[in-house]
Design goal:
The protein is of the alpha/beta class. It has 2 domains: about 110 residues, Glutaredoxin; about 140 residues, Transcription Regulator spoIIAA (2-Layer Sandwich), CATH 3.30.750. Helices cover about 45% and strands about 15% of the residues. It is built from 10 helices and 9 strands. Strands 5-6-7-8-9 form a 5-stranded mixed β-sheet, with helices on both faces. A 4-stranded mixed β-sheet has the order 2-1-3-4. α8 links the parallel β7 and β8. The longest helix is centred in the middle third of the chain and has 23 residues. The radius of gyration is 22 Å and the shape is elongated. The two termini are about 35 Å apart.
Length: about 250
């Protein structure tokens, strides 16, 4: 469940709430002034956000200015900053959108809208998986844990969504090695002229994932695509395999 942490009188928070409501997002609302984030919560959110702790300060707030924190923060440790933030919710940048997988600090409309779209697609994926006999499973291999996703319908329609899915799997199952059924990808991914498969490979590699797509690629007769498969399989980052067994072997060895 999403938690929307805000100051109700703040116009920026009101705009963020309007965006959440426009996507019919399900969330709990928390008043940052009357229900101040604790030290432990802030520490967790900091890790989830992957931001420096200074980004959690409400630098435009009166309290921040009256305490002269602009000059004090550079010499404070991360732990000292977190303990200070926990003393008063008005020191914390708002709004925040958090769940067990991530934390967004401050309202960036484009970033929040992107998050809503990703959550919609992930919900589609979850609903499909719940109805399907094939669910995501984690398999222990010599080289570490590998997530295996079989499928029935194409859901991946962009490189961004594939990366979002991979990050979701990393958060939920702790896997950076992922094998996915070819059926999950729209056919345009396997048309090199679209640039989608190259973009997907770049995004996955750049984010530290080892990925395998398993299925029947034998009917792709064009030399460029087959050359791409050969080069990818040599790279150790993106594999094309005939089935999930071969995918597990490849990912387990890398």
């Amino acid at each position: 469940m999403l938690t929307f942490i805000c100051y109700p009188k703040c116009t920026t928070c009101q705009k963020a709430k309007a965006l959440l409501d426009s996507y019919h997002a399900q969330y709990e609302t928390r008043d940052i002034k009357t229900d101040n984030p604790s030290y432990d919560e802030l520490k967790t959110w900091l890790a989830l956000s992957e931001l420096p702790v200074k980004k959690f300060f409400n630098t435009s707030g009166q309290l921040y200015k009256s305490m002269g924190l602009k000059d004090k923060l550079p010499s404070m440790s991360e732990d000292e900053c977190l303990r200070l933030l926990a003393t008063d919710g008005m020191l914390v940048k708002r709004p925040l959108l958090v769940d067990e997988y991530g934390a967004m600090v401050g309202f960036n409309p484009a970033a929040w809208e992107k998050e809503m779209l990703e959550l919609e697609r992930l919900q589609e994926l979850k609903e499909m998986a719940d109805k399907s006999p094939y669910k995501v499973r984690a398999v222990e291999t010599i080289g570490g844990k590998v997530a295996v996703q079989k499928g029935e319908i194409p859901l991946f329609n962009s490189a961004e969504f594939v990366l979002g899915y991979a990050n979701h799997i990393k958060r939920v199952l702790g896997c950076r090695k992922i094998a996915v059924d070819k059926i999950m990808f729209e056919e345009k991914f396997f048309d090199l002229s679209s640039g989608l498969i190259e973009e997907t490979a770049q995004k996955l590699i750049g984010s530290g994932f080892n990925f395998a797509i398993f299925g029947d690629f034998s009917y792709y007769e064009g030399k460029p695509f087959n050359d791409f498969i050969c080069e990818s399989n040599k790279s150790g980052h993106l594999y094309f395999t005939i089935d999930d067994i071969e995918a597990l072997k490849k990912l387990g060895d890398c």
